[in-house]
């Protein structure tokens, strides 16, 4: 007898030797676990089938009846005795079969003999038995090996059996039966499910059937719209581990109980029935199948192959791809397609071939595993087979064939050290682990690609879709879920940006932080898997600890300071608890998952909670049992709230929605009891706390923004039980837009039978309790931003609920409790100074309650509008606090990074109240007082004022005077707040206030004019406020009569004079303008300007006033002001573009027009103040063109003669001009460059014009040129140009 053979993928092994020299003496290969041909007959349609937990793809393996019958007839001559002898021989030869496994298989063979009508024969060998079980049909017909496929069994109802007591054993270990898809108790060994039903064709889903008595449906393949899988194919539920202790049978334990969950794809949307997603591979595969593109389909053992043709398009020709699929126990274990698909889901060609096998089993050619076929050949046939194979593919296989031949002929080769040979069509051993195909390298490449893209190209959405895929796998109990998450985590840890961020000391982006948070939450679900094996859990924990120990591993809250409590620590039980003991030196995103190793599911109270809807308090309770139930007898779960919610999330994520729902109800009952106790404690301390006005009581660990998202988990668990559409978690419309979910009230099936509560009302209640919790603002930008973001997510989910009478009652009740909650509620009368504001939450409550209870809604919103951190600082405070709360003890004042966002939400709340209270004077006055007290941002108050103004002055209806007055009051407050501070919008605010006062009426304008000094600066008051108040537009807008106009004008003149006295530099001109119609006021304003001219007024201000006086017909006053301005001016030799040059020329022209005396008085000021030669020459030229005294002043006459430059007063100006040219020339020659030579020659030309004005000017200019030649003779090129121009 040959040596033992390893029971692995190799499917061929040496056969027992025959008589020497016999015809088969040359045969050396036989199948280790080859299926008898007759076993294939049992897989034909019409045969009874075994129930499989993953029976949705069972039809993939159902062979055509003709092919099975043919193989059956061809194998009948071998004899039953020989088959049994070879079976026993192979069992002994298999090295991987332990004695325990041997006894197990013997026992199972005995059992199957007693149930031949339902089970394959005991001697049905490995591949055949696996093939039949995989197909959902017994390996042997009831009528024996030779029975035909048609007469073996008539389809009919399946026998049933009662559930085994092992389903209710709370602490009993479970393990999986090797022969059936049911569950078996380790202690009793009895099968919990032993029934089956016949089936023809693929199995359908049977949701609603009993887990103990499944029945397979008959008929055609399932509807294509119901097929969905992570890679474009519908995937059956994994043959997962047993349920948690005390739980009911898992939903996936029957063929039809596996949930049909639509695949959300990777950012492509769900493939649910009635949904969109026409571009998904599954939809494309269906189109390829319907168009007849699948051909040459052949099934060899556990290997399916075929060709799929993509039809031609306008841009690409038709392409034919070869597709190969391997499967094992209703799972596709590997796929190969010629299209070269580079993604982590199945391509459309794999989908098309699989659906072809499911829908058209009669058209598929079925062959035995290739090792079985080889076994039937003699030596000549084998040689012919090999040579024909090599000839057909000699270019591909010849090198490999020769290499294998060399190794086989070598006695010492490795291939001869192992008995048997591999067979890719034989399938795996039944003891081997089987799981769905997952291309690990492709997953790694995809994650690496998305991470390298940062926040661009929707990579964040793609990674979130991969996380959603992991959750779907966990929900379907696919073992690839944890495997895929491990691959994702490895790529996340290998992200080079982690090292870069750590080296630079910068924090990661918000999108990356959110992805890491989701990663940590998923690992918590994996660790808390209620049916996870200890060795698997230990392996995961080792990996998590390894990742957590790395320096680049992100921290939980992104901050190295204050940390959150341990996941397994409940809140401290005494006031003297040291807060430092709650901290850990370093908490990473994986810390909570690692801490989950201390949690277990063996608690008997927990088991009873999640296993029964009618678990209530026993009649006779002990002292310890009383703490486990409330006064109505409903069970409580006294555990750290986020930790308890993590259990709920784990149950939800692993496909136990009912158990999660029961635990959720127990947690909510616990929160209710805690809320009642807090109210009782506050009643005893209310008087003392109100007197003090502050408290140190708060929660260090808030539920909103928590890494585990406890409130969101409870809310989703409850609302999912109330959804009307159950075809998938997400509904996708034809336009790929999310449809709002529709909920219905589902009564709570727990505890008190008289309870009228529904899961929907519980969802609303727990959301209100969580968001209304008084909690301290966490440290760090990301942690604070996460609080805001999580709150907005919860509110968006709440807004999807349609509030009916029951929900409104729940809302009113919870709001009253929150208002009366004291320091334990964020809406209580006394809260901690650093408590998280409730503005966004209160805005939702106000809008929801307003139609039903206006008084309560306004009371709640007015309570929530406060922002304690910006108000009076807290005093020492009280250090006493209830036993179940944490005291914020260190008086820390962290930076509130999100303060701007919080203030904007505060403004939104106030604006919502103002809009709702339109027309209600009393409420508007109360809201106004609250805004003035609690809102501290001038910009936000101004925004509120603008909003109120818009609401009060609609274009299509009358003005609301009450709300308009509120807008004016808010505007006045803004003016007072920004009067002494810098605000870039100040000018806009002033203009808006005048507009608002104009809308209110003339009395409002008079009021702001009279009290201007408390609202405006002098410049604003004169240039904007007063000017607008007396403008023609305002008079027409208000339809003012003469007395009203005079009143406004008088107030404006008074304001102008007051402003001019206070700030003459800025307000003198505006005061003159406002007072020009009143002589007395005008003279007073002019005198103020003259008095201020000797002080701090600049030459530009004086020139401006002087020009105004000339314009108004006061030239002498203008000359006086211009002379004062000239005395303040200093114009250097090189300032030939100074803005004051025009003012100087205007002043000289004014003095020249007034007469010779005025010009003579001004010229000395000009000579003293102006040193620019070009400006002086321009003034000199203008004065010699016309005669002075042409202004036409009464009492003066012009001489009509031109003034000479050789006589006063122009002689002084001429000398000053020549000296200026000489000085400027020397200054320019000091640092002149060759590129400026041309400009300098032009400058000398202008100077010569001035030199030539006096009689001896040409001599002066010639002497000047000679001096230049002598002094600057080193500048030869320049002097050459001077000689060429001037001699």
UniProtKB/TrEMBL annotation:
Q: Where is the composition biased (Low complexity)?
A: 11-23, 39-72, 135-155, 179-201, 210-231
Please indicate if the UniProt record lists Protein transport as a keyword: no
Tell me if Zinc is a UniProt keyword of this record: yes
User: Which intervals of the chain are annotated as region Disordered?
Assistant: 1-254
Q: Which GO terms describe its molecular function?
A: zinc ion binding
Positions with biased composition (Basic residues): 1-10, 73-93
InterPro entries assigned: Znf_SWIM, ZSWIM4-8_C
What is a single cellular component term in the Gene Ontology annotation?
Answer: Cul2-RING ubiquitin ligase complex
Q: What are the SWIM-type domain coordinates in residue numbering?
A: 321-358
Query: Keyword set for this entry?
Result: Metal-binding, Zinc, Zinc-finger
Where is this chain compositionally biased, Basic and acidic residues type?
Answer: 102-111
Database matches in Pfam families: ZSWIM4-8_C
Q: Which PANTHER family match?
A: ZINC FINGER SWIM DOMAIN CONTAINING PROTEIN 4, 5, 6, ZINC FINGER SWIM DOMAIN-CONTAINING PROTEIN 5
What is the name listed in the Swiss-Prot or TrEMBL entry for this protein? Zinc finger SWIM-type containing 5
Specify the species: Equus asinus
Coding gene? ZSWIM5
């Amino acid at each position: 007898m040959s040596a033992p053979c390893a029971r692995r993928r190799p499917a061929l092994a040496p056969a027992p030797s025959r008589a020497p020299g016999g015809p088969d003496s040359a045969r050396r290969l036989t199948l280790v676990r080859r299926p008898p041909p007759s076993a294939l007959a049992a897989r034909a349609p019409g045969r009874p089938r075994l129930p499989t937990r993953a029976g949705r793809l069972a039809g993939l393996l159902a062979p055509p009846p003709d092919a099975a019958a043919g193989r059956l007839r061809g194998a009948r001559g071998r004899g039953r005795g020989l088959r049994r002898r070879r079976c026993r021989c192979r069992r002994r030869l298999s090295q991987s079969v332990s004695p325990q496994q041997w006894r197990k298989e013997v026992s199972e063979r005995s059992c199957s003999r007693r149930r031949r009508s339902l089970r394959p024969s005991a001697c049905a060998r490995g591949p055949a038995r696996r093939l039949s079980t995989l197909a959902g049909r017994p390996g042997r017909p009831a009528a024996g090996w030779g029975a035909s496929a048609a007469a073996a069994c008539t389809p009919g109802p399946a026998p049933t059996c009662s559930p085994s007591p092992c389903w209710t054993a709370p602490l009993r270990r479970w393990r999986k039966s090797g022969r059936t898809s049911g569950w078996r108790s380790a202690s009793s060994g009895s099968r919990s499910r032993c029934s089956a039903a016949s089936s023809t064709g693929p199995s359908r889903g049977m949701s609603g059937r009993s887990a103990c008595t499944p029945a397979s449906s008959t008929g055609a393949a399932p509807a294509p719209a119901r097929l969905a899988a992570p890679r474009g194919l519908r995937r059956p539920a994994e043959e997962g581990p047993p349920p948690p202790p005390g739980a009911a049978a898992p939903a996936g334990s029957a063929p039809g109980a596996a949930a049909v969950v639509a695949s959300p794809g990777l950012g492509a949307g769900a493939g649910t029935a009635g949904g969109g997603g026409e571009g998904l591979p599954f939809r494309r595969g269906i189109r390829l199948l319907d168009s007849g593109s699948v051909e040459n389909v052949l099934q060899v053992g556990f290997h399916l192959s075929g060709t799929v043709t993509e039809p031609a398009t306008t841009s690409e020709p038709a392409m034919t791809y070869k597709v190969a699929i391997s499967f094992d126990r209703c799972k596709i274990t590997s796929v190969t397609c010629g299209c070269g698909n580079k993604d982590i889901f199945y391509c459309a060609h794999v989908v098309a071939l699989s659906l072809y096998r499911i829908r058209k089993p009669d058209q598929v050619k079925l062959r035995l595993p290739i090792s079985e076929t080889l076994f039937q050949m003699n030596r000549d046939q084998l040689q012919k087979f090999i040579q024909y194979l090599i000839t057909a593919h000699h270019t591909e296989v010849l090198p490999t064939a020769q290499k294998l031949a060399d190794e086989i002929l070598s006695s010492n080769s490795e291939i001869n050290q192992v008995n048997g040979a591999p067979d890719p069509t034989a399938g795996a051993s039944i003891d081997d682990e089987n799981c769905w195909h997952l291309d690990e390298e492709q997953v790694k490449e995809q994650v690496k690609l998305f991470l390298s893209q940062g926040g661009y190209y929707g990579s964040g959405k793609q990674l979130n879709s991969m996380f959603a895929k992991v959750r779907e796998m966990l929900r379907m109990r696919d073992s690839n879920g944890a495997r895929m998450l491990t691959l994702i985590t490895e790529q996340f840890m290998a992200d080079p940006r982690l090292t870069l961020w750590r080296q630079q000391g910068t924090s990661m982006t918000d999108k990356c932080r959110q992805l890491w948070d989701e990663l940590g939450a998923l690992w918590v679900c994996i660790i808390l898997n209620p049916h996870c094996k200890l060795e698997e859990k230990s392996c995961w924990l080792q990996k998590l600890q390894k990742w957590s120990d790395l320096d680049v591993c992100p921290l939980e809250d992104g901050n190295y300071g204050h940390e959150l409590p341990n996941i397994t620590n409940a809140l401290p039980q005494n006031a003297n608890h040291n807060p430092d003991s709650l901290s850990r030196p370093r908490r990473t995103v994986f810390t909570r998952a690692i801490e989950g190793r201390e949690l277990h599911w063996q608690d008997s109270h927990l088991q009873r909670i999640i296993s029964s809807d009618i678990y209530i308090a026993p009649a006779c309770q002990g002292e310890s049992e009383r703490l486990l139930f409330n006064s109505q007898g409903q069970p409580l779960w006294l555990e750290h709230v986020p930790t308890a919610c993590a259990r709920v999330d784990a149950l939800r994520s692993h496909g136990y929605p009912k158990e999660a729902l029961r635990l959720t109800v127990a947690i909510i009952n616990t929160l209710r009891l805690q809320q009642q106790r807090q109210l009782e404690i506050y009643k005893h301390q209310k008087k003392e706390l109100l007197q003090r006005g502050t408290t140190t009581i708060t929660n260090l660990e808030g539920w909103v923004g928590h890494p585990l998202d406890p409130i969101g988990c409870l809310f989703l668990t409850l609302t999912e039980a109330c959804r009307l559409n159950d075809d998938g978690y997400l509904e996708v419309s034809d336009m790929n837009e999310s449809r709002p979910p529709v909920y219905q009230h589902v009564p709570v099936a727990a505890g008190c039978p008289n309870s009228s509560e529904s899961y929907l009302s519980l969802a609303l209640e727990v959301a209100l309790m969580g968001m209304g919790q008084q909690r301290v603002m966490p440290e760090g930008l990301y942690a604070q931003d996460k609080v805001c973001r999580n709150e907005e997510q919860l509110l968006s989910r709440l807004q999807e609920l349609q509030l009916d009478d029951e929900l409104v009652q729940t809302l009113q009740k919870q709001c009253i409790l929150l208002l009366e909650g004291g320091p334990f509620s964020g809406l209580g009368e006394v809260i901690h100074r650093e408590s998280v504001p409730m503005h966004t939450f209160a805005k939702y409550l106000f809008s929801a309650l307003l139609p039903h209870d206006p008084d309560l809604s306004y009371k709640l919103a007015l309570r929530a509008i406060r922002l304690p951190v910006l108000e009076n600082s807290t005093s020492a405070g009280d250090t006493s606090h209830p036993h179940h709360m944490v005291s914020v003890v260190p008086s820390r004042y962290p930076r509130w990074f999100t303060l701007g966002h919080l203030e904007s939400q505060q403004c939104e709340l106030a604006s919502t109240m103002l809009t709702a209270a339109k027309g209600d004077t009393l409420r508007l006055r109360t809201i106004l007082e609250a805004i003035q007290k609690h809102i501290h941002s001038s910009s936000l108050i101004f925004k509120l004022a603008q909003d109120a103004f818009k609401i009060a002055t609609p274009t299509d209806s009358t003005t609301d005077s009450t709300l308009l007055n509120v807008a004016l009051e808010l505007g006045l407050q803004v003016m007072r707040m920004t009067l002494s501070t810098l605000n870039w919008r100040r000018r806009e605010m002033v203009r808006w206030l005048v507009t608002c006062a104009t809308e209110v009426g003339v009395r409002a304008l008079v009021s702001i004019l009279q009290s201007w000094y408390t609202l405006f600066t002098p410049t604003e008051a004169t240039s904007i406020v007063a000017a607008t108040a007396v403008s023609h537009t305002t008079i027409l807008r208000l339809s003012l009569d003469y007395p009203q106009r005079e009143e406004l004008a008088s107030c404006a003149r008074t304001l102008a004079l007051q402003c001019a006295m206070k700030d003459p530099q800025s307000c003198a001109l505006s005061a003159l303008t406002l007072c020009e119609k009143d002589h007395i006021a005008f003279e007073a304003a002019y005198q103020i300007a003259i008095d201020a001219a000797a002080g701090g007024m600049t030459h530009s201000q004086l020139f401006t006033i002087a020009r105004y006086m000339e314009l108004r017909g006061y030239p002498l006053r203008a000359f006086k002001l211009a002379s004062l301005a000239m005395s303040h001016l200093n114009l250097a030799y090189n300032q030939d573009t100074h803005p004051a040059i025009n003012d100087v020329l205007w002043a000289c022209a004014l003095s020249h027009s007034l007469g010779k005396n005025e010009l003579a008085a001004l010229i000395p000021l000009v000579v003293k103040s102006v040193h620019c030669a070009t400006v002086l020459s321009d003034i000199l030229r203008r004065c010699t063109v016309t005669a002075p005294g042409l202004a036409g002043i009464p009492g003066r006459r012009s001489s009509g003669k031109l003034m000479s430059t050789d006589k006063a007063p122009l002689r002084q100006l001429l000398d000053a001009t020549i000296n200026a040219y000489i000085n400027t020339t020397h200054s320019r020659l000091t640092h002149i460059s060759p590129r400026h030579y041309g400009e300098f020659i032009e400058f000398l030309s202008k100077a010569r014009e001035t030199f030539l004005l006096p009689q001896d000017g040409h001599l002066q200019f010639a002497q000047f040129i000679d001096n230049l030649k002598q002094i600057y003779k080193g500048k030869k090129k320049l002097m050459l140009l001077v000689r060429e121009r001037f001699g």
